Amino acid sequence: MSMLAPASAAATSPSASAQERPAASAAGTPPPAAAALPSWPDTHALYERFAALVNQPMRPIRPDAMPKVLRWFDDHCAGSKRLAAQAATVIPGGVQHNLAFNHPFPLAITRAEGAHLTDIDGNRYIDFLQAGGPTLLGSNPPAVRAAVHALLDDCGPVTGLLHEYEVKLAELVCRHMPGVEMLRMLGSGTEAVMGAVRLARTFTKRQRVIKIGGAYHGWSDQLVYGMRLPKTGRMEAIGIPRGATANTQECLPNDPEALRRLLRWNRLRGGTAAVLLEPFGPESGTRPVHREYNAQVRALCNEFGALLIFDEVVTGFRAGIGGAQGYFGVTPDLTVLGKCLTGGYPMAGAIGGKREIMMSLVGGIGTTSRRAFVGGTLSANPLSCVAGYHSLLEVERTNAPAVAGRAGERLRIGLEEIIQRRGLPYVAYNLGSIVHLQTSGVLLLDTSSLWKLIKVKNEAKRRKHMMEEMGAAFTAHGLISVAGSRLYTSLADTDDVIDDALNRFDDVMALT
Known about the structure:
Helices cover 39% and strands 12% of the residues. By secondary structure, it is of the alpha/beta class. It folds into 2 domains: 39-122 and 399-509, Aspartate Aminotransferase, domain 1, CATH 3.90.1150; 179-378, Aspartate Aminotransferase, domain 2 (3-Layer(aba) Sandwich), CATH 3.40.640.10. It has a 7-stranded mixed sheet with strand order 4-10-9-8-7-5-6, sandwiched between helices. Helix 14 runs parallel beside helix 16 (495-509).
């Protein structure tokens, strides 16, 4: 398939045979009891493959092939290039957030529907970005759109007062997520993490918070710490006073003994308010946790009297409608939800948890009880709540986590076949509908000590550039990914969509 083939073109012979790929159901017709993750991957074997990837020379797009990739953007994306240049004059760096960055310049999207995106120049792409993960149903699902339109006609997007869909959405989340007895909505995942940490400190009357290094929990001052690469501390905390992170600590993933030592040390100095983690592992499972890790952390939190906070901004509801906590059977004290909560509509964030803890969030100007103050005039607005409620109803009706998970499995199996057939060092694995394709290994570098951190800084720059070029090659072949290394599947990803995508990935890997 050529670099110029439209994403709607019929798939030719798939890279892996039908016998090698799981037989996925048509979107919307899954088995009633199908699971989003039929099994957890062998993480010990994955880490051996990660080590092999980063300990050998990189396999980037060949120097003779990269100019052809970049020329595709010049020839086919003039409108995006023009708008990106205009944006750079009024927006710092030309993009409002990291997801919008695309090498060599951002794409301007005009249409999102199901499994596809269309840009301002009419190029059509298979969408594995899915807005960073929240559109589990695929982009712009009609049932949700119709409910939103009806609400806008009758009420408008915001009133500042109570609306029935606030209650309906909270009831639905409480019904499905084991650790959520009450729900307080906020404006984003970042706000929800800020509120959850404040709530944990209020409830426990302790200050220290331990995060699992490498995870991204938003951009609040206290949590721009140990981001993306473990043990990097304040490396990205430019403009943030040291006092803001003075009570933030980090611990390597998959090391319960190190966490125990830190909890024990904190107990001598007043204790730990909370342990905060992504239940699949940092960066949506880029460093996946071992199957038993969450239960081990839960036991340690019980032992040392710390609250356990699950950041389910991505895993709720991709791990199943009960979130990762339902999948692992581990109940956190607090749950953070973000963009997943409203199916991609704006103002999406919430803190959920046990009633006795959540009551410290009681609102009201005149309250005299000990409470954690959180605000947000547009939080829980009717638009967000109606979108979230109907999105979750559709997730229930279609068993979207299972359908998207089967698509992720099919994609991963096909990618592994291509990698093996072409003799590449890359690593593909999936956690249900979250598919990881590690080609540069930039987020897998060993930063477990200061000396190793110093050594990898230049290596990280080289590998990051390789990842950007790989992402550009994917885009030029009609594939939109998260930074060229993560792929979110959705309810809209039928067998034909996945097989079409695999042909395109095969074409890209032929350029390495």
